[in-house]
Structure formats: structure tokens, C-alpha cells
Amino acid sequence: MNKFVPISTEYLTPSRTLETLNLVQFEESKSVYLYNYEGTHFRVFESLVDLIRFFELGKETLYSFDLEEDLDEFLEQLPFNAGKRALNLKLNYMYRDGANYKQFGWVIFANPGFLCPRRAAEQFKEKLIYGEYFVPQDWGLARLQKYAYDPEIDHEWHEFENFEWTEEDATDEREISRFLNEIEKGYEV
Question: Are residues 177 and 95 in the same domain?
């Protein structure tokens, strides 16, 4: 996890600031530039050249956030050697049978649009059964039931846990935005 150390803050106007932060992880460090408009929109630039291109040419950055919490979570996870590669999103879910035995699993989606975990979870929860459950095979995901089906305790529903940033490679061929657009709300009893 990265720690961030503020280096400088420039007030461009009363509602616009430009901050230089030093991200520190063990013995490595990396400078990033943060442009904030009215405290509600944050853009992160990994180089001074990208920042200049934004101001002079209007070239947008990959990293843009509407909430400070999303920005902070991103800065804590930003890899030092990834260059312009977006962090992928890991969907964590589990299966809990009627006897309360649990199996955990995950799938990783490419995230070129840089969707943050909070927004992905909001979109995903809209399609869940009672806001929590889903049938993974209906959405092209793996079932997590480890043992042979026992009709007295087994069912099809799996539980959503969360989304998280990850540097790991995608395990699903779909991008996260495509996955979230393709899935349909599960049936409710």
C-alpha cells in the first residue's frame, strides 16, 4: 500500500488547485500531480508532460474521480511500474451452502476505462437478487460449489463480496464495462 506525502499545493483560482504528491512504497517513490476542480472532480497525472498536455491541448488523463475516497483508494494502490496501464478489477464472491460451509472465488476483468471499485459495485448490485445474490453460470462465471450437489443443503445462489483494484492479469476475456452492461438482473422469489 502506498503512502502519500504532499509536496506542494498551488491555488490556480479559489476553486482550482494543483497538488504535487510523492507516493512512497518501501524504498521506492513516485511523484504524481493532482488537479482538483471545486473539490468534486479530481484528475491524476503521472508526469509533468501529461499535465501540460491537459492544460495546453485539453488531453484528458486516464485517471479521473468524482469522490475523494475513490481518489485516495486509487493512490494507495497505484503501481509504480505500470506506466499507463489501468488497474484491473477483481470481483470477489462466495458460495455458502445451507450448512454454512463456504467456498470463495474471484474473477479479474480488464479495466481500460478505469472504473473504480465503488462504481462497479453500485452497477453490479443493481442486478443482484435482493442486492446480494446471483447465479454465476447465468453470467458466464464459475460456480464455486466444491462437492457433489446435495439437494438438502445446496442451491444455485452465490454471494457478492466486493470489487477491488488489482495489478493481476485479467482472467475473463470481457472488460468490466462490457460485463456489467451484458448481465441481467437475477430472478427474485
Answer: yes
